[in-house]
């Protein structure tokens, strides 16, 4: 690495204030050409704010950027792109209704020549080992393929600096390896890479340098290859993260949740069809379902929660009772509880206060909450208060609107709302997605404690670290099919990666 | 044969305002905005166009004035929905009610006044020809130019468009103004060419039918042309059948355009596959940029 | 200058109360300007238009008569709009309610007992409900946009009314005028001066709907589905049932309004019948902040615009069309001011 050269980009005492929040507080960092630079930090530490400013989507309140030795203002993403800064977003900035080539054309300046562009896309993507069909509609592409579109879009602009925001969160371990090869090649060609991640193991493998942010401030700069994941985690969190105590020894109870040949009707080409899913979850155990995003996780969740009804009534058994034809409320009455992935708009109504959000999932099971169809708001308030106290939900006022809570605090509330009922069965989709480390540890411990008390806990997650931390058994979902649930100890990273890529899929000649 | 030609001309003049207003709304909806104020913009275009033509004696100045009438209402709509982030459905209704009221007040003294019909050659006037050119232009713009790509991108995912650095609000303002201009022009066509006079509420729901046509056309300009002529033909044929007095109640025939609109919506909306593939994803949603 | 909106962390309850008042004030300011442009002393104009209708007994009664259908329909629509279900065809349901109620004395001209009054009111409500269910069924079964279908059916309802009242429902002894027989005795609503029993229905209905909306699980369900449909489904609420429920309630209220209007005011059916109450009720619902109790106040306020319009025509020689302008402008300002509830507005000098 040409470490002696002057930096490509310097951030000089950058401050960004939103209202009263100092999202970036005097942040300075420098990135050299050909360097893979990690930006580490918890959710809410200010990583996204910083890169959005580098990409021109936000403007710093004070401080400046120095690009190739010259101070300048990055006024817009278009200007950033013309400087040679490309960005691959975490939640992709792609347009589903447009084709891959159209998506790419949007980012490129100059003449509008679709045919010529398509052939360039085909050539360049093949060259970097990221094959891509330029005429494919984004809606028809897998998550991994969509990421390729984003990367190819950046590469076509001959970037000097490529920013990637949590790129491997949507990839199988094998796909991630392929991405690392591409990134190393780019770096060797002189392109600087700013790599945002919270996966410390891969940062250690890939990156030359790391800047750690905490609460908007730079707290450390280090060489990840000289660090351990634990030491970097300490820098990110500022203290030792609470250790989650997993279940010791398997004291399996009876089967509480069973899925038998669960199949959903094909809805349309925007959702995944579940095919012949079998799974038993016993009381006293945590079963986790791993998989790459978009392989049927949310459909599976909906089918278990009753938001989508099963074709066969005995496809879903709850404590032995056939519940496939029961709606959400009836399934809750069978003792089941559910926490969906999307906090705002699915688990909670953003504009409702917390006590109203308590009614949302409890009106059917708490008899006196809505007897004879009339709501008892004192009880709703009491439930909310119990949850808030038990899970240390931090909030600004007595009964705030759900949207005003931070991700971690709202997640503690939506999980706590269900745990407060002491359910026999709990199904959680992405329990700690976008949640700070402290809240994540609290939630994971609560899930394990619930299982210890005899409940069946099913966790759907894309976070392999989380899965290995809490699961007794693991199954993998891929394109709507579920592999057999096996003890967590029997998996290697390679094995789980192959399953995530679809090794277990039965070819259903449709 | 002459009679056949006369009917054809009538159908064309009845379809033209639906086509023009529909094209404007199509572009607006492609950018993710649901403008239910088409009726109000149209009726304002009708009164402004008629008033200007009456005052100056020049129907072409009437055309210009009708466009301004529609654009004025569109700017009000844009200010509420795009700047103040008001609910698009409610604002559209407000624009329609306001337009109907304002036009009635402005047009109070114009009722019953005569003007010369827009000059035409055997019934074919300049706006009929323009409506065909406009269809081709809108289609070309949406699917063959960068501007069209940006409009479709903004309508598909405004958050991503913003992240890419496109001015979502500016793009939508431009589309809303274009939609208002088209709606105003369509209204002007009614009062300057179709029935060259001013009558209160003279749009008679055509703005709403244009909205339905956009859905019927699944947001494609070519299909909108077909749809507009289909509707034009049905409403004119209903009038012709009426003159034969076969004992069919005139009210039934008059309600045909509305019933056909409902039927068309049912047929096209029942096809979920088609709807989901074409409906702009952000249709009707306000965009709040983070700063 | 640039106008910036800054999102509040919680909705401002002060602004929720103030915003309709600011909107009314802005409308009055707009009115003053219009009067001034028309060469009328603005203060005098505002007095004649907005205050005078409340000063004497006779016009106060008329105010309540006008407000009655507005409140009935506004309250029903408020419930529906809260659930994000857009019935904008109340005008058509109103007309069908009047028609259904009127059909009873047309069929049984000699029926005279308290029952006939009840039957007429029920027939009116049912007529409105069934007409409203057409767009509801089309939405649930075929996903057809209810805004467009319910509006199209307004035009159809008017034509159906016209056809029947000119045809089989016409009074055979009515000199060929397009009118039905006159309603007599129990076929009319009891009244005190001009004010008929419908006013009481409006008051009770608005209170009852407010109770449903804010104290009952059903109302919670509708509000949830309106704000976050996915969360509503997660709570076990059915969006399809909500569509049926909202169209049933708002349609029945509109039908009832139509029935009380012909039974309490006109005492017969006559065509054309286009009172426009159904569209003004949309404004009532919004001005009342989609709260049925708010509809009571908003209904009275919009009734003033009707009566004031007539007064302006008579005294100020300004066309009564000005009423429609005020109504439209009022809704416009209401929507603009609602922004203040969720956002702070900041004017910034451009850099």
Rg of chain C over CA atoms, rounded to whole Å, is 21 Å
Q: Return the CATH architecture of chain B.
A: Orthogonal Bundle
Distance from N terminus to C terminus of chain C (CA atoms, Å) equals 9 Å
Q: Could you please say which CATH topology of chain B applies here?
A: ABC transporter involved in vitamin B12 uptake, BtuC
What proportion of the residues of chain C is helical, as a percent range?
over 70%
**Average pLDDT over all residues of chain C:** 92
* Structural category of chain B: mainly alpha
Terminal residue distance of chain B: 66 Å
CATH architecture of chain C: Orthogonal Bundle
Please provide the count of β strands of chain C.
4
Mean pLDDT of chain B: 91
Name the quaternary structure: heterotrimer
**Strand residues, percent of chain B:** under 5%
Which sequence of SSEs, written as H and E, runs from N to C of chain B? HHHHEEHHHHHHHH
Q: Strands across the major sheet of chain C, in which order?
A: 1-4
Largest binding interface between chains: B-C, 48 and 48 residues
What is the helical fraction of chain B, as a range of percent?
over 70%
* CATH homologous superfamily descriptor of chain B: ABC transporter involved in vitamin B12 uptake, BtuC
Shape of chain B: globular
Count of runs of 4 or more consecutive helical residues of chain C: 13
Number of domains of chain B: 1
Provide an overview of this structure:
The complex is a heterotrimer of chains A (510), B (291) and C (351). With 510 residues, chain A is α/β, with parallel strands linked by helices. Chain A folds into 3 domains: 9-237, Rossmann fold; 241-335 and 423-510, Rossmann fold (3-Layer(aba) Sandwich); 350-418, no CATH class. Chain A contains 16 helices and 21 strands. Chain A has helices spanning 47-54, 77-83, 100-107, 114-127, 143-155, 173-188, 200-206, 229-237, 297-305, 328-333, 354-362, 377-390, 407-419, 437-452, 464-470, 493-500, and strands at residues 9-18, 21-31, 36-40, 62-67, 70-72, 85-88, 161-165, 192-196, 209-214, 217-222, 255-262, 277-282, 286-290, 316-318, 321-322, 336-339, 425-429, 456-460, 473-478, 481-482, 486-487. In chain A, strands 13, 16, 17, 18, 19, 20 and 21 form a 7-stranded mixed sheet that branches. In chain A, strands 6-7-8-3-9-10 form a 6-stranded mixed sheet, with helices on both faces. Chain A has a 4-stranded antiparallel sheet with strand order 2-1-4-5, with helices on one face. In chain A, strand 4 (62-67) and strand 5 form a beta hairpin. The longest helix of chain A has 16 residues, at 173-188. The radius of gyration of chain A is 24 Å and the shape is globular. The model of chain A has no long low-confidence stretch (mean pLDDT 87). Chain B is mostly helical and 291 residues long. Chain B has one domain: Orthogonal Bundle (ABC transporter involved in vitamin B12 uptake, BtuC), CATH 1.10.3470.10. Chain B has helices at 2-30, 38-56, 59-83, 88-106, 126-144, 146-156, 158-163, 168-194, 206-216, 221-244, 250-269, 272-278, and strands at residues 120-121, 124-125. In chain C, strand 2 (191-192) and strand 3 (195-196) form a beta hairpin. The longest helix of chain C has 29 residues, at 114-142. The N and C termini of chain C lie close together (9 Å). The interface between B and C is large, with 48 and 48 residues.
């Amino acid at each position: 690495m040409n470490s002696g050269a002057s930096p490509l980009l310097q951030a000089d005492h950058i401050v960004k204030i939103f209202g009263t929040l100092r999202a970036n507080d005097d942040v300075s960092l420098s990135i050299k050409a050909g360097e893979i630079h990690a930006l580490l930090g918890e959710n809410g530490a200010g990583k996204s704010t910083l890169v959005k400013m580098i990409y021109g989507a936000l403007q710093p309140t004070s401080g400046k950027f120095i690009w190739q030795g010259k101070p300048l203002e990055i006024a817009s993403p278009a200007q950033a792109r013309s400087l040679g800064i490309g960005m691959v977003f975490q939640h992709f900035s792609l347009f589903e209704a447009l084709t891959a080539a159209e998506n790419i054309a949007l980012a490129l300046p100059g003449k509008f020549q679709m045919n010529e562009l398509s052939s360039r896309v085909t050539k360049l993507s093949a060259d970097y080992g990221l094959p891509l069909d330029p005429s494919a509609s984004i809606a028809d592409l897998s998550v991994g393929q969509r990421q390729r579109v984003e990367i190819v879009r950046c590469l076509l602009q001959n970037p000097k600096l490529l920013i990637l925001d949590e790129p491997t969160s949507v990839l199988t371990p094998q796909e991630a390896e392929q991405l690392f090869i591409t990134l190393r090649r780019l770096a060797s060609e002189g392109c600087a890479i700013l790599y945002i991640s919270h996966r410390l193991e891969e940062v250690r493998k890939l990156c030359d340098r790391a800047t750690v942010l905490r609460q908007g401030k730079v707290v450390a700069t280090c060489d990840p290859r000289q660090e351990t994941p634990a030491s970097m985690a300490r820098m990110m969190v500022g203290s030792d993260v609470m250790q989650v105590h997993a279940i010791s020894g398997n004291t399996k109870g009876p089967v509480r949740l069973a899925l038998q040949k669960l199949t959903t009707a094909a809805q349309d080409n925007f959702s995944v069809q579940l095919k012949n899913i079998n799974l038993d979850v016993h009381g006293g155990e945590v079963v986790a379902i791993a998989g790459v995003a978009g392989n049927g996780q949310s459909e599976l969740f909906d089918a278990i929660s009753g938001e989508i009804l099963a074709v066969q009534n005995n496809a879903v058994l709850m404590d032995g009772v056939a519940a496939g034809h029961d709606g959400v409320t009836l399934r809750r009455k069978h003792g089941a509880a559910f926490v969906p992935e999307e906090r705002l708009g699915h688990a909670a109504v953003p504009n409702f206060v917390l006590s109203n959000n308590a009614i949302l999932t409890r009106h059917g099971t708490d008899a006196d909450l809505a007897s004879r169809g009339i709501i008892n708001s004192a009880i709703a308030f009491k439930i909310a208060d119990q949850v808030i106290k038990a899970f240390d939900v931090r909030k600004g006022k007595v009964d705030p609107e759900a949207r005003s809570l931070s991700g971690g605090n709202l997640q503690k509330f939506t999980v706590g709302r269900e745990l407060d009922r002491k359910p026999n069965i709990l199904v959680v989709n992405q329990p700690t997605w976008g949640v700070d480390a402290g809240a994540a540890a609290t939630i994971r411990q609560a899930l394990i404690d619930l299982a210890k008390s005899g409940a069946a806990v099913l966790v759907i997650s894309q976070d392999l670290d989380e899965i290995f931390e809490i699961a007794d058994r693991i199954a993998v979902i891929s394109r709507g099919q579920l592999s057999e649930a096996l003890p967590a100890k029997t998996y290697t990273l390679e094995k789980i990666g192959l399953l995530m890529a679809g090794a277990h899929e039965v070819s259903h000649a449709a | 044969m002459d009679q056949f030609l006369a009917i054809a001309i009538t159908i064309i003049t009845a379809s033209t305002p639906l086509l023009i207003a529909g094209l404007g709304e199509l572009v607006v909806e492609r950018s993710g905005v649901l403008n239910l104020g088409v009726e109000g913009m149209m009726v304002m275009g009708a009164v402004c166009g008629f008033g200007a033509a009456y005052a100056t004696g020049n129907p072409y100045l009437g055309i210009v004035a009708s466009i301004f009438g529609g654009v004025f209402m569109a700017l009000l709509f844009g200010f509420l929905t795009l700047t103040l982030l008001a609910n698009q459905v409610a604002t559209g209704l407000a624009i329609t009610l306001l337009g109907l009221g304002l036009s009635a007040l402005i047009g109070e003294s114009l009722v019953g006044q005569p003007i010369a019909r827009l000059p035409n050659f055997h019934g074919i006037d300049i706006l009929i020809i323009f409506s065909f050119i406009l269809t081709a232009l809108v289609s070309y713009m949406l699917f063959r130019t960068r501007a069209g790509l940006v409009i479709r991108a903004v309508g598909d995912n405004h958050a991503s468009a913003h992240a890419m650095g496109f001015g979502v609000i500016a793009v939508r303002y431009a589309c809303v103004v274009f939609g208002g201009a088209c709606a105003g022009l369509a209204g002007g066509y009614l009062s300057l060419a179709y029935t060259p006079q001013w009558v209160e509420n003279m749009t008679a729901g055509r703005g709403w039918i244009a909205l339905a046509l956009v859905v019927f056309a699944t947001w494609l300009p070519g299909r909108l042309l077909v749809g507009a002529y289909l509707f034009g033909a049905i409403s004119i044929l209903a009038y012709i059948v009426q003159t034969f007095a076969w004992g069919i109640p005139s009210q039934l025939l008059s309600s045909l355009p509305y019933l056909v609109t409902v039927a068309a919506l049912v047929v096209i909306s029942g096809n979920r596959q088609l709807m989901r593939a074409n409906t702009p994803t952000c249709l009707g949603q306000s965009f709040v940029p983070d700063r | 200058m640039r106008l910036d909106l800054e999102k509040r962390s919680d909705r401002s309850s002060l602004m929720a109360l103030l915003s309709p008042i600011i909107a009314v004030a802005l409308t009055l300011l707009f009115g003053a300007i219009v009067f001034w442009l028309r060469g009328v002393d603005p203060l005098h104009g505002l007095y004649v238009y907005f205050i005078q209708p409340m000063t004497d007994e006779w016009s106060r009664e008329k105010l309540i008569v006008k407000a009655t259908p507005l409140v009935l329909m506004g309250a029903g629509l408020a419930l529906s709009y809260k659930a994000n279900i857009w019935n904008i065809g109340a005008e058509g349901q109103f007309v069908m309610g009047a028609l259904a109620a009127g059909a009873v004395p047309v069929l049984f001209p000699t029926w005279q007992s308290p029952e006939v009054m009840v039957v007429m009111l029920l027939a009116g409500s049912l007529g409105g409900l069934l007409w409203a269910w057409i767009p509801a069924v089309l939405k649930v079964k075929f996903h057809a946009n209810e805004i467009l279908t319910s509006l199209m059916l307004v035009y159809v309802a008017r034509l159906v009314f016209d056809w029947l009242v000119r045809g089989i429902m016409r009074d055979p002894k009515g000199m060929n005028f397009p009118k039905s027989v006159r309603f007599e005795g129990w076929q009319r609503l009891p009244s005190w001066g001009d004010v008929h029993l419908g006013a009481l229905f409006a008051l009770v209905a608005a209170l009852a709907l407010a109770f449903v909306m804010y104290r009952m699980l059903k109302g919670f369900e509708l509000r949830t589905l309106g704000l976050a449909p996915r969360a509503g489904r997660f709570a076990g609420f059915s969006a399809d049932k909500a569509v049926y429920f909202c169209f049933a309630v708002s349609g029945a209220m509109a039908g009832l309004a139509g029935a009380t209007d012909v039974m309490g005011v006109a005492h017969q059916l006559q065509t054309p019948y286009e009172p426009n109450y159904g569209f003004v009720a949309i404004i009532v619902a919004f001005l009342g902040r989609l709260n049925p109790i708010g509809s009571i106040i908003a209904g009275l306020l919009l009734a003033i615009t009707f009566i004031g319009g007539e007064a302006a025509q008579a005294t100020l020689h300004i066309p009564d069309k000005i009423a429609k302008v005020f109504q439209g402008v009022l809704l416009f300002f209401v929507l603009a001011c609602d922004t203040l509830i969720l956002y702070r507005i900041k004017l910034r000098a451009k850099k």
